[in-house]
Amino acid sequence: MIRTLGVLGFLLVLEAAGRLGLIEALPPVSVVLVTAAGLAADGSFLSDVGATLSACAAGLLIAVVTAVPAGLLLGTVPAVERSVRPLVEFLRPIPSLSLIPLAMFLWTDSHDAKIALIVYTCSWPLLINTMYGLADVDPIAKDTLRGFGFGPMAVLWRVSLPSTAPFIATGVRIAVSVTLIVAVSVELLAGGGGGIGAYLVQAGSANRVDRMLAATVWAGALGLAANALFTAAERRLLRWRWAT
């Protein structure tokens, strides 16, 4: 309730500022929201939304199926982790947006460039969280299974993976939150190929600030919905975690 009141209060302040001419360059919030509602029936905009979401989904899926097994490998084989750690620490701080020119050079199709950068960006929280999760596994539980004759794979499946699952889920939620940022940024800078970012460029070229802000509202709403969806899925799949 408090959060809702806070959002409504913020919107009312912006509406008043727009109506009173305190922010002359921006239309009132009510105009932006009406425009955003109208975009829900705009087939061209919905096509752009689909282009952005398809790239986000593909990039996130590829990142999960590659980064999580890589994290399991690095977290269970110390020799491999020590040999790869310098490379990981070198690549991880590089901002994904700084790699947009390189991605556009390597993949002439902007859709493929979006997916590649999303994979790059999403892989780090998934990889690091998986490694941290394995490091947090109770060693007594693993030793107990080994004492009963279970092999390394059985220990990984019965103890390590269940203990690491909450960390992996957190990594997925972090990755989801950045997919839209990367996708829209590539669309803004690369142009063409459709997407919310391309729609923003077109609206800006036509001097339609209301449409620009309306599309931005949609991007924020989609990010909020994706986070809520994955949080609900995490609560359902990891009920034992939330019950404690």
Describe the structure.
The chain is mainly alpha-helical. Helix 3 runs antiparallel to helix 8, helix 5 crosses helix 6 and helix 9 packs antiparallel against helix 10. The chain is elongated. The two termini are 25 Å apart. The model has no long low-confidence stretch (mean pLDDT 83).
- Tally of individual helices: 11
The backbone outline, from C-alpha atoms, is elongated
Helix content range of the residues, please?
A: over 70%
Helix-and-strand structural type: mainly alpha
Low-confidence stretches: none
β-sheet strand percentage: under 5%
**Helix/strand order, N-terminal first:** HHHHHHHHHHH
Q: Separation of termini?
A: 25 Å
**Rounded Rg:** 22 Å
* Major pleated sheet: none
- What do the pLDDT scores average to? 83
Give the total of beta strands. 0
Secondary-structure blueprint:
Blueprint: H1 2-19, H2 29-39, H3 43-76, H4 78-91, H5 100-106, H6 110-135, H7 139-147, H8 152-190, H9 196-205, H10 209-237, H11 239-243
Helix pairs in contact: 2-10, 3-4, 3-6, 3-8, 3-9, 5-6, 6-8, 7-8, 8-9, 8-10, 9-10
Brief write-up:
With 244 residues, the protein is mainly alpha-helical. The protein has helices at residues 2-19, 29-39, 43-76, 78-91, 100-106, 110-135, 139-147, 152-190, 196-205, 209-237, 239-243. The mean pLDDT is 83.
